[in-house]
């Protein structure tokens, strides 16, 4: 229902007197007062299944009827459809009936005879009240969409605690309830996916493109429309999806998630790089850590198989060994491009997986060779040195005397530790450079928001385009570095200025709304109260600082 459009509410009538029932049905111009006549019944027993199916917004019921009276019906409807308004009509001026009706949350208790004018008056009052509630619900949904459009730290932290096994099952459900995250299901799975512009170098800022921004918008819409998929950010470039479902359909939900995401990415042509991987479904939420480890390990195969977008265990098994060999031994040659690819996009937590994949790739017998151990460590060393030099560092920043000595004297039993140390040092240098770029990026972003928060068209996409960064990357960096989301910061700036204007100027509330970037004064009032606990008028009257 768009703003400014009047809602049309369904009304259902239960009345055993046919004359009264037909009189109300035929003599009230329901549409004129914002209602549509959805149906009627002669008693509560007949009415209940119809009400459950039609889910009316307003129930008008007589109190004394055969089989099931109006109070019993009202009690059931109030429990099952708490948003349905109830009006009771009665020929009995009995205070005890009215008391019971009030306890059940009945809106009106009307005594017969019921005049047309009286019904019209009630309809007009209820229509106004229900319209206001619909608008408040729309504002709440808009507020929640804005707050959740990009990940919050609490949501990300919650997911980390689940997959790391830091919470008991009862704590998981308690936290989920507090955060209004529905995790109830019979079975679960985890899907990892990453999105970036074609040719993007992992931890470095991903430049803004309309194609990437469009894909990220469609991805957000995709997850908003699938309640069985819960989206969490894992790191700057990777998301994790918690898939929920029954034991018989969680696998189908998992595949639908992968297919849907792949379809969105493929529609962008060659302008998007993406990778996806999933775990094996589990039937206990306490088993998610194992599922997570499996999915996380599989998606790390992207460093070995960069041309494969949907990754699986079979990717490594099917990946052919290179034809080129070491001349003297016939052992496999490690492609330095794989090393550079990992250094541009990998994380420290993935080092061991990556090294294991490389060694598995060349074969167990090859790994035991002293010659290969020296060759392997030197290949990693040269590729890492070349990579850090491309970032502007002197290669000596990577090759400390200790690492140089380790790489030159590597043996089969020490090669893996040496390679781990080399890759870790290279990633630390990469992240140091990345941090500088993030800092400069945030300075630009915050300055732009501070200057343009009053623009009602400001958005993450607009700011991202202004600073030439992908919206996804900007969202992640902003949350990571600022401790709040883009929307939370923008709202904070707007409400802070609104407070100042309310206390130190004579501007009316709607003028304040426009001045701080809200084109809908009613929505501004909603956000202001949601944020401060006071309406703008109350805030001004109290003089709260």
Tell me what you see in this structure.
This protein has 545 residues and is an alpha/beta fold. Helices cover 56% and strands 11% of the residues. The protein is built from 23 helices and nine strands. The strands form two sheets. A five-stranded parallel β-sheet has the order 2-1-3-4-5, with helices on both faces. A hairpin with a 4-residue loop joins strand 7 and strand 8. Helix 2 packs parallel to helix 3 (70-80), helix 17 crosses helix 18 (460-467) and helix 21 (509-515) packs across helix 22 (521-532). The protein is elongated. Mean pLDDT is 84; it is low at 320-331.
User: Counting H and I runs of at least 4 residues, what is the number of helices?
Assistant: 23
CATH class of the largest domain: Alpha Beta
Mean pLDDT: 84
Global outline: elongated
Largest sheet: 5 strands, parallel
| Overall structural domain count | 4
Q: What's the helical proportion of residues?
A: 55-70%
| CATH structural architecture of the largest domain | 2-Layer Sandwich
Class by SSE composition: alpha/beta
How do the strands line up in the largest sheet? 2-1-3-4-5
Question: Any idea of the CATH topology of the largest domain?
Answer: Alpha-Beta Plaits
The share of residues in extended strands comes to 5-15%
N- to C-terminal distance: 37 Å
Question: Any idea what the radius of gyration is?
Answer: 31 Å
| Unreliably modeled segments | 320-331
Number of strands: 9
